[in-house]
Design goal:
It is a single chain. The protein is α+β, with helices and mostly antiparallel strands and 308 residues long. Helix content is 66%, strand content 8%. Strand 5 and strand 6 form a beta hairpin. Helix 12 packs across helix 13. The longest helix has 40 residues. The termini are far apart.
Length: 308
C-alpha cells in the first residue's frame, strides 16, 4: 500500500478531491486533531460518545438524527422505536431487532427523551445533555477542515450551533449513509469499527502516535498495555486482545519489543485506512457546509430582492 508520504510526492494535477485532501501538508495534523478530540469526548461523556464509537451504532445514530432534524423542520413524523427499525432495514444497517435494542438502550440511558405533548405516540428527541456532545462532534470535523485549508467553518458553526446543527445533520447524514467508502472501509479498519468501542480503540492508537519516533513501515504509539487500554474504554481484556490479535495477524500492528512491556506500533497501511476513513467524512462535511452556505446566501439574496 502506498504510504502517506509517497501520496504527497506522487500527487497529479488531475487527482481526486480525496487525494488532494490527503496530500495536504496539514492533513496529518487534522487527523491527529480528530483522534485526540474523539478520545477526549469519550473521557468527558462516555455514554453519549459511545454512539459514535462503532460503525453500526454510528450509522443508526446518523439515520435517527437525520430523521429527527428533517421532521422537526417540516413537522412530519419523528423518531420512534418503530421508525428506528424501519430506518435500519431501509439503509441496510442492521436487523430490526438490533435497531430496537439500540433504541431501548439510548432511551434507558436518557440520551433521548419522550417528545413533548402534541407529538406522535412513542416519539423521542435528543436529550438536552446530549446536544453539546453532538454539536462537538460536528464542530471538530469542521475544525479539522479548517486546519487543512485555513478556513473558519468551525468558528462560524460555534457562533450559531442552534441554527446550523439542524441544517448540517440531514445534509451530512444523507451523504454518510449513501457513501460506499463510509459503509465499507478497509480490512484493518473493519476489524475494530464493527465491535463495541472499536472506533475509540483506533482513535486512542492514532492519538498516541509519536511523531518524533521512527518505526520502519509504520508509526510508534505511546500505548503499551492492552489491559490499560481495555480498562480505559470499559471493555473486557479478552475482547480487546482478540481485536489486536486479528489486526496483528495481517500486519496491522505489533510491539516494538517484548509484548506487554514495550510500545505498540501501527502499520502505515493501518494508519492510511484510518486516515482515509476520516478523509471521506471530511469531504462530506466540506460539501454539506458549502451547500448550506450557498442556500443561506440564496435566501439572503431573495430577501434583498423583496426589499429593493
Amino acid at each position: 500500500m502506498t504510504s502517506m508520504l509517497e501520496r504527497r510526492f506522487r500527487l497529479l494535477p488531475e487527482a481526486s478531491g480525496i487525494d488532494r485532501l490527503m496530500a495536504a501538508e496539514a492533513f496529518d495534523d487534522a487527523i491527529g486533531l480528530l483522534a485526540q478530540n474523539f478520545v477526549a469526548s469519550h473521557v468527558a461523556a462516555p455514554r453519549s460518545s459511545a454512539q459514535f464509537a462503532s460503525q453500526q451504532r454510528w450509522l443508526l445514530s446518523q439515520a435517527a438524527l437525520t430523521r429527527h432534524f428533517r421532521a422537526a423542520e417540516v413537522g412530519g413524523p419523528g423518531v420512534s422505536r418503530r421508525v428506528i427499525g424501519h430506518l435500519a432495514v431501509q439503509h441496510n444497517i442492521s436487523s430490526r431487532n438490533t435497531a430496537y435494542a439500540f433504541f431501548d438502550e439510548i432511551l434507558k440511558y436518557r440520551l433521548v427523551l419522550p417528545a413533548l405533548e402534541g407529538s406522535r405516540a412513542g416519539e423521542v428527541v435528543p436529550a438536552p445533555e446530549a446536544l453539546p456532545v453532538l454539536g462537538g462532534w460536528y464542530e471538530v470535523h469542521l475544525a479539522a477542515l479548517d486546519c487543512i485549508d485555513g478556513g473558519d467553518r468551525s468558528i462560524r458553526f460555534r457562533s450559531a450551533p442552534e441554527r446550523l446543527l439542524p441544517l448540517l445533520v440531514p445534509a451530512i447524514g444523507d451523504r454518510l449513509l449513501a457513501s460506499p467508502e463510509i459503509r465499507m472501509p478497509g480490512p484493518l479498519y473493519r476489524i475494530f469499527a464493527w465491535s463495541d468501542a472499536g472506533g475509540h480503540l483506533m482513535d486512542r492508537l492514532v492519538a498516541g502516535i509519536d511523531r518524533h519516533a521512527s518505526q520502519p513501515g509504520g508509526y510508534l504509539t505511546d500505548v503499551r498495555s492492552i489491559t490499560h487500554l481495555a480498562d480505559f474504554l470499559a471493555l473486557s481484556r479478552a475482547h480487546t486482545s482478540r481485536k489486536f490479535a486479528e489486526a496483528e495477524s495481517i500486519g496491522g500492528l505489533g510491539w516494538n519489543g517484548r509484548r506487554g512491556r514495550s510500545r505498540i506500533w501501527i502499520s502505515d497501511g493501518f494508519y492510511t485506512e484510518y486516515a482515509m476513513a476520516q478523509a471521506h467524512k471530511l469531504i462530506i462535511f466540506q460539501e454539506a457546509f458549502a451547500e448550506i452556505e450557498g442556500r443561506a446566501s440564496k435566501m439572503n439574496d431573495e430577501d434583498c430582492a423583496v426589499f429593493s
